[in-house]
Amino acid sequence: MDITKLLNNTSFFKGLSEEHREGLSAICSAEKLKKREYLFHEGEKGNNMFLLLDGNIQLHKNTEDGREVVIRVVKPGEIFAEVVLFERDRFPVSARAVTNAEVLLFPKNGIDRLLAEKGFRNDFIGLLMAKQRYLTERIQELTTKDVECRFFTFLRAQYGEKKLIHTPLSKKDIAAAIGTTPESLSRLILRLTEDEIIDWKGKDISILSNPWKWLD
Question: What does each C-alpha distance from 64 to 4, 36, 67, 69, 91 come to in angstroms?
Answer without folding.
Answer: 42, 22, 7, 11, 17
